[in-house]
Design goal:
The complex is a heterodimer of chains A (about 625) and B (about 500). By secondary structure, chain A is mainly alpha-helical. In chain A, about 75% of the residues lie in helices and about 5% in strands. Chain A starts with a helix and ends with a helix. Chain B is globular and about 75 Å long. Classes of the chains: A mainly alpha (about 625), B mainly alpha (about 500).
Chain lengths: ~625, ~500
C-alpha cells in the first residue's frame, strides 16, 4: 500500500510526460487524476490506521549511497507526522488535478502540465516519507525543480521565466545552508538516518565546534543551518522574495505548491527535527523570531498589493510565519495543526481566485474587478468561506488553529512568548483587514473593468467548483473535527507518539478568558471597519495614502527587498564575473602566460635573426667580444 | 587468464584506425566503409570493456589482468594492469568514443576518414593511460594524447583554431617537460619505474616535494586548475563537437586519475604537505570560474568554464583523503564525463543547424524543437547537481568529505552549488525559453534518430547512476579503502621516521 501511495503519481507523471501525444489530452488528464486520487485515498487509509492502531512502518526500497560509513537508502517511513502530511498532500493534489482539467481547458500543453503536477506529488511524497536527511534533500530539491518548471510553465512570458529562475536560486541559497547542516550531522553522528541521529542527540548536546572562527554549540549550529533551508523553502523573511513572483505560474500550481504543500515543507522539517531543536533554546528562539517577523512584515505588504494572487501569496508567507513561531515556542503539534487547516482554506482561496481570474479572462488586478458577486455566486460564497476561515472567524478551521498558537505562546510564560502573543494578535487583525479588502474589492462595490462587459462574466464550470466545495467543507470542519486529535491534551500525545519530541511536557493550563475572547472579537470588529474603509467611504483611505505617501510606497514596493538584493548580490556578482573574465583571464593570465611567452620568444628570435646579417665586421666584432670575455675569465681564475 | 585482454582493449582501436588508413579510395562507398569500420571498432571495444568489467573481481584491491612484456630490457617493461578505479575510466572512455564516432558521422563533412583515425588513436592512448602500471608507459600514453587532440583542434576547428591549438600545446607541454624530468629522477632515485614496486619502495621524504610539484604541474594543466585553465575555454570553443566531447569527458579525467594514482600513491608526505595549496586553488577555481561562466556569451565557453569549476570539486575531494571525498571525486569525474559530453553534444546539435555558438543568436528553441528542449533540460539539471542525477552523488560526497577535513573549504565549495544553478538555468532560459528573435531558427528541424540515440543513452546513464550508483560504488570500494589505508600507513611511517 505504501508503495502505491508513493509510486502511483510517478507512473502518472511518466506516462503523461513521455507518451502524452499518443494517449491524448483527455486520457492523460483522467489517468493522472485517477492515480493521484487513488494515492490520496490510500493515504487516508494509512492515516486511519495510524490514528486507530498507532500504525508505523519503515520500508527500505533499495540502497542509494554506500560510501564508507555513509549508508543511505531509498525508504518509506510512515508515522503520525508523515501520514498527516500524506493526507494533506493527497487531498490537495488530487483536487488540484481535477480542478486543472477545467482551468487549463484552453491551454495547448495539458499533458505536460498534468505530468509536472504528478511529478510534484511524487517528489513531495518522497520528501515527507523519507527516513533520512539525504532522501529528504532529494525531495526538497525535487519539489523545487517542479516548482521551477511549473512557475515557468508559460515560458513565452519573460516574467514567468525570470520568476522561475529566481525561485530556484533563492531556494538554492537556503539549500546551501541545509546541505551544510547535513554535512555537519554526518560529521558528528556518522549517519544521516533520523532514528540514529535522534538517538545520539543527548550525547552530542554539550559539544562545541569552531565554525569559521566562531565557537558554537554543535546542536545549535545544526539547527540554524537546517533552518536556513526551511527559510528558503517556506519563504521566510530574507528568503521570501521568490514566493510572490512565483504567482506567475498557473493558479492551480499556486494552490498546490505555493500554498498547501511545498512551502510547508520547511515547517515539516522543523517538526520532524524536533528532537534536535528541543536541545537548542537559541535555535528555537531564532525560529520563533523569524516566524514572527515574517508574519508581521508580509501581512503589512499584503495590505496594499493589488494583484489578487500576490495578496494571497503574501498571506501565505504570513501564515507560514505563524507556523514557525508555533514551532519556535515548542508547540510543534499546533504548528502541524495550523499547517493542516491552512492547507484547506489557502488552497480554497487560491483555487477560488483562480475561478475569479478564469471568469475575468485572466485579469488579476483587483482594482479592475468588483460588483460581480451576483454573477458568480458560488465562487463568491466559497471565497467568503475561505476568507472567514483564514481570518479565524469563530468555529471555522482557522479559528481553532490560529488561536491555539496564540494561547500556547501565552502559556509559554516567557518574554519571547508574550512578544509572540502581541505580534500574533496584531497580525491576525492585519490578516483580517487585507482579506476583507480582497473580498470587497473583488466582489462588491462598482464594476470597474472596461475591457470586459459585465454580461460576459460567467461562473466557472462544475469541474472547477466541485473541488472547491470539498475544500470548503475542509475549511469549515477540519478545525473542529481534528482539534482533539492534533492538539488535545492527552489525546494528542497518543496520536503523535514519538514522531515529535517534547522535552517540556505540554501543560494542561488554560489561558485567561480575556485572551480567548480577544482575538475573535478584534477580528469581528475589523469586518465592518474594512467594509467602511474599502467600500463605503474610500476618501479616508485616499487621504491617508496621500498624506503618508512614503509609507504607502514602502509597502507597495514590498519593503524594497528585491531592489536591495539586486544591489547587494546580483549586480556585484555579475560585475565580478566580468572582471575575473576580462581582467583576470584575458588581461593577466593570458597576457603574461602563453601570449606573453609567445611574444617573448618572437622578440628574442627577431633579435637572433638580426645577428645573422652576413656582414663580416659584425661577426668579427662578436668574435672579439667573445675572445675578450674568455681571456678575462682565464686571467681572473 | 592468458588472453591479454587489457592489450586488446587498448590496441583494438589502433587496429581499427589502421584499417581505415588502408581504405584509400575517396568515393562515397569508401567513405561509408570507413564509417562502418569506425563504428564497428568503437562498439566492439565498448563491449570488450563491458566484458572486462564483468570479469573484474571487486573483492580484491590488487591490480588485475596484469600483463608484463619486456620492452627496453633492464630499464622498463611494458606493464599493464587495472584496479577498481581504473576500470571505471576505461569504461567511460570506451563508452564515449562510439558516441563521438556517431556524432562525427552526423556532423563532420570534410576529411572524415582522418577524423576517425584521430579519434581511434586517441582512444588507444586514453585507455592506455588508465591501464599502464609503469611510469614510462604512462608518460608515453599521457603525453601522446596531446598530438591527436592538437590535430583535431587544428584541422577541424573553428576560425581561431590555430591560436587555440598552439595555446593548448604550449600549456600542456610546460607540464609534460616537468613530468618527464620527474619520471627520470624517480628512476634515478629508486632504480625502477614499475608502479607495483614503487608502491612498496618509500621514496625519501626530501625528494618527494619537488617530484610532487613536477607531477602536479603536469596534472594541474591538464585538469585544468586555476590559473592554468585559460587554454580550456579556447580549445573547447574552437574544437569540433567530437573534439570537445573527448576533451571534456576524458582528457581532463586523466589528470584527476593521475592525482589519485601517482601523487597520493607515490608521494604521501608531499600530498599531505601541499593539501592547503590544492584546496586554495580549487576553491578559487570553483568560485572564480563559476562567476566567469555566469557572464559568458558563448555557449561552449560557458560550459568549458563550468568544467573548470566542476573539476575544482574533484581536486577538493581527492585531497580530503577520506572515503567519501575520494569516492565522490571518482564518481564526480565519471558523471562529469557523461554530463559535459552531453552538454557539448547539445551545443553541437544546434551549432550544426545554425552555425553560431553565441547565446544571443538563440532563444525560443522550445517552440521549434521541443524534443531537444526536454533532453537539454535533463543535462542542465544534471550539471547543476540536482539530486536524482549522477552529478549530485559526486558533489554531495565530495562536500561531505571536505567538511570532515576543513569546514571552511566545504562552505566555500558549497557556494559553487548556488552559482552552478545560476549560470546553467540562465543559459537554458536564454537559449530555449523566451521569444524567437532569430528568424533563421524557424527553419531548423528537431533531433534526428542518431542524435536521439546518443543523447538519450547519455541521459539514461546520468539518471540511472543518480538513483542507483551502487554498481559504481561496489567497483571502487575496496580499491579506495586500500588507497587510503596505504596513504595513512605511509604517512605515519614518514612521520615516525622524522621523529627519530
Amino acid at each position: 500500500m505504501e508503495y502505491a501511495i508513493v509510486f502511483l503519481p510517478l507512473i502518472g507523471a511518466i506516462v503523461s510526460g513521455f507518451f502524452g501525444k499518443k494517449i491524448g489530452d483527455r486520457f492523460s488528464e483522467i489517468f493522472t487524476s485517477l492515480l493521484v486520487s487513488i494515492s490520496a485515498i490510500l493515504s487516508f487509509v494509512v492515516f486511519y490506521f495510524v490514528i486507530v492502531q498507532g500504525y508505523a512502518n519503515n520500508i527500505t526500497i533499495f540502497s542509494w549511497l554506500t560510501s564508507g560509513d555513509l549508508q543511505v537508502n531509498w525508504s518509506i517511513k510512515i508515522d503520525a507526522l508523515s501520514s498527516t502530511m500524506l493526507v494533506v498532500v493527497g487531498i490537495v493534489s488530487s483536487l488540484v488535478h481535477i480542478y486543472s482539467i477545467g482551468y487549463m481547458v484552453h491551454d495547448d500543453c495539458k499533458t505536460r502540465f498534468m505530468s509536472y503536477l504528478s511529478l510534484f506529488t511524487f517528489t513531495m511524497i518522497t520528501l515527507v516519507t523519507s527516513d533520512n536527511f539525504l532522501q529528504l534533500f532529494f525531495g526538497w530539491e525535487g519539489v523545487g525543480l517542479c516548482s521551477y518548471l511549473l512557475i515557468g510553465f508559460w515560458y513565452k512570458k519573460p516574467s514567468a521565466n525570470a520568476a522561475a529562475i529566481k525561485a530556484f536560486i533563492v531556494n538554492r541559497v537556503g539549500d546551501f545552508g541545509f546541505a551544510l547542516g547535513i554535512f555537519l550531522i554526518f560529521y558528528y553522528f556518522r549517519t544521516v538516518n533520523y532514528s540514529e541521529v535522534f538517538a545520539q542527540i543527548p550525547f552530542i548536546a554539550g559539544k562545541q565546534i569552531n565554525f569559521l572562527g566562531i565557537e558554537i554549540n554543535v546542536i545549535t549550529l545544526t539547527c540554524i543551518l537546517l533552518f536556513l533551508g526551511c527559510m528558503g523553502k517556506s519563504a521566510q523573511i530574507f528568503l521570501h522574495t521568490w514566493l510572490p513572483d512565483a504567482m506567475e505560474g498557473p493558479t492551480p500550481v499556486s494552490a498546490l505548491i505555493h500554498a498547501a504543500t511545498m512551502v510547508t515543507a520547511g515547517v515539516f522539517l522543523v517538526v520532524r527535527c524536533s528532537p534536535i531543536f528541543e536541545y537548542s533554546q537559541f535555535a528555537l528562539n531564532l525560529v520563533c523570531i523569524v516566524g514572527m517577523t515574517t508574519a508581521f512584515i508580509t501581512a503589512t505588504i499584503a495590505l496594499v498589493q493589488n494583484d489578487i494572487k500576490r495578496i494571497i501569496a503574501y498571506s501565505t508567507c504570513s501564515q507560514l510565519g505563524y507556523m514557525f513561531f508555533a514551532a519556535g515556542i515548542g508547540a510543534y503539534h499546533v504548528a502541524m495543526f495550523h499547517l493542516f487547516t491552512h492547507a484547506f482554506f489557502k488552497a480554497l482561496l487560491f483555487l477560488g481566485s483562480g475561478s475569479v481570474i478564469h471568469s475575468f479572462k485572466n485579469e488579476q488586478d483587483i482594482r479592475l474587478m468588483g460588483g460581480v458577486w451576483k454573477k458568480i455566486p458560488y465562487t463568491w460564497i466559497l471565497m467568503l468561506i475561505g476568507t472567514l476561515a483564514l481570518t479565524g472567524f469563530p468555529f471555522l478551521s482557522g479559528y481553532y488553529s490560529k488561536d491555539a498558537i496564540i494561547e500556547f505562546a501565552y502559556l509559554k510564560n516567557s518574554t519571547i512568548g508574550f512578544y509572540a502573543v502581541f505580534i500574533g494578535i496584531l497580525t491576525a487583525i492585519l490578516t483580517s483587514i487585507y482579506s476583507w479588502r480582497l473580498l470587497f474589492k473583488t466582489f462588491h462595490g462598482k464594476y470597474s473593468n472596461e475591457k470586459i462587459n459585465i454580461e460576459n462574466i460567467h461562473e466557472s464550470p462544475m469541474i472547477m467548483l466541485a473541488p472547491l466545495i470539498l475544500l470548503a467543507v475542509g475549511a469549515i470542519g477540519s478545525g473542529y473535527l481534528f482539534k482533539d486529535l492534533f492538539i488535545g491534551y492527552g489525546s494528542s500525545s497518543e496520536f503523535w507518539r514519538n514522531s515529535i519530541l517534547f522535552l517540556n511536557p505540554i501543560t494542561n493550563d488554560h489561558p485567561p478568558i480575556w485572551l480567548i475572547l480577544l482575538t475573535p472579537l478584534l477580528i469581528m470588529i475589523s469586518i465592518p471597519i474594512s467594509y467602511y474603509l474599502f467600500l463605503k467611504d474610500k476618501k479616508i483611505l485616499t487621504k491617508f495614502v496621500r498624506s503618508h505617501k512614503q509609507v504607502y510606497e514602502f509597502l507597495l514596493n514590498k519593503w524594497y527587498f528585491d531592489e536591495l538584493y539586486d544591489f547587494i548580490f546580483v549586480k556585484p556578482l555579475k560585475k565580478l564575473g566580468l572582471i575575473f573574465w576580462k581582467n583576470g583571464d584575458i588581461k593577466t593570465i593570458d597576457q603574461f602566460g602563453p601570449d606573453g611567452f609567445a611574444k617573448l620568444v618572437k622578440f628574442f628570435s627577431n633579435k637572433a635573426v638580426q645577428f645573422q646579417n652576413g656582414y663580416i665586421y659584425h661577426y668579427a666584432f662578436v668574435m672579439l667580444v667573445g675572445l675578450s670575455i674568455l681571456l678575462t675569465y682565464l686571467i681572473l681564475i | 587468464m592468458n588472453f591479454p585482454i587489457l592489450s586488446a582493449v587498448t590496441f583494438l582501436p589502433l587496429v581499427g584506425s589502421l584499417f581505415i588508413l588502408l581504405i584509400k579510395d575517396s568515393s562515397d562507398k569508401a567513405i561509408d566503409n570507413t564509417k562502418y569500420v569506425a563504428i564497428f571498432t568503437s562498439f566492439a571495444n565498448f563491449f570488450l570493456a563491458i566484458f572486462l568489467w564483468f570479469s573484474f573481481d571487486t573483492s580484491t584491491a590488487d591490480f588485475q589482468f596484469i600483463e608484463n612484456k619486456q620492452w627496453v630490457s633492464g630499464y622498463f617493461n611494458f606493464r599493464l594492469g587495472i584496479d577498481g578505479i581504473s576500470i571505471l575510466f576505461i569504461l567511460l572512455t570506451a563508452f564515449i568514443t562510439p558516441i563521438c564516432v556517431l556524432s562525427v558521422i552526423n556532423s563532420v563533412k570534410v576529411r572524415i576518414k582522418e577524423f576517425f583515425i584521430a579519434i581511434l588513436v586517441m582512444e588507444t592512448l586514453m585507455i592506455g593511460v588508465f591501464c599502464s602500471l609503469d611510469l614510462v608507459v604512462f608518460y608515453l600514453f599521457f603525453e601522446g594524447g596531446l598530438i591527436p587532440m592538437f590535430l583535431i583542434i587544428g584541422i577541424w576547428g573553428g576560425p581561431r583554431r590555430v591560436y587555440s591549438a598552439f595555446k593548448f600545446f604550449l600549456f600542456t607541454l610546460l607540464g609534460s617537460v616537468l613530468l618527464l624530468i620527474a619520471v627520470i629522477s624517480i628512476y634515478w632515485i629508486t632504480g625502477t619505474t614499475d608502479m607495483t614496486q614503487l608502491l612498496e619502495i618509500k621514496i625519501p621524504k626530501e625528494y618527494q616535494y619537488l617530484l610532487w610539484l613536477a607531477f602536479f604541474s603536469s596534472f594541474a594543466v591538464k585538469l585544468p586548475m586555476w590559473p592554468v585553465h585559460t587554454w580550456l575555454p579556447d580549445a573547447h570553443v574552437e574544437a569540433p563537437t567530437a573534439g570537445s566531447v573527448i576533451l571534456a569527458a576524458i582528457l581532463l579525467k586523466m589528470a584527476g586519475y593521475g592525482f589519485i594514482r601517482f601523487s597520493i600513491g607515490l608521494f604521501p608526505v608531499a600530498s599531505d604537505f601541499f593539501t592547503p595549496l590544492i584546496f586554495l586553488l580549487s576553491i578559487i577555481a570553483i568560485v572564480y570560474t563559476s562567476l566567469v561562466a555566469l557572464m559568458q556569451e558563448d555557449m561552449k565557453k560557458l560550459i568549458a568554464y563550468s568544467s573548470v569549476a566542476h573539476m575544482g570539486f574533484v581536486t577538493v575531494g581527492i585531497f580530503t583523503f577520506t572515503k567519501q571525498g575520494l569516492e565522490g571525486s571518482i564518481i564526480q569525474m565519471i558523471s562529469h564525463g557523461l554530463i559535459s559530453a552531453a552538454l557539448f553534444l547539445c551545443v553541437g546539435v544546434v551549432y550544426d543547424r545554425v552555425h553560431s555558438r553565441m547565446i544571443s543568436s538563440y532563444g525560443g528553441l522550445v517552440h521549434i524543437i521541443p524534443k531537444y528542449a526536454v533532453i537539454f533540460m535533463i543535462f542542465t539539471l544534471a550539471a547543476l547537481g540536482l539530486p536524482g542525477t549522477s552529478g549530485f552523488v559526486g558533489e554531495i560526497l565530495i562536500l561531505m568529505g571536505a567538511f570532515q577535513k576543513n569546514i571552511l573549504v566545504a562552505v566555500l565549495a558549497s557556494l559553487g552549488v548556488i552559482f552552478s544553478a545560476a549560470y546553467m538555468l540562465w543559459l537554458y532560459k536564454r537559449v530555449v525559453f523566451g521569444k524567437i528573435n532569430n528568424s533563421e531558427l524557424k527553419k531548423i528541424y528537431d533531433l534526428n534518430k542518431t542524435e536521439i540515440f546518443i543523447l538519450s543513452s547519455l541521459a539514461f546513464l546520468i539518471l540511472f547512476f543518480g538513483f542507483y550508483p551502487d554498481p559504481l560504488f561496489r567497483t571502487i570500494d575496496i580499491s579506495v579503502s586500500e588507497l587510503i589505508k596505504n596513504y595513512e600507513i605511509n604517512l605515519t611511517f614518514y612521520l615516525t621516521e622524522a621523529a627519530k
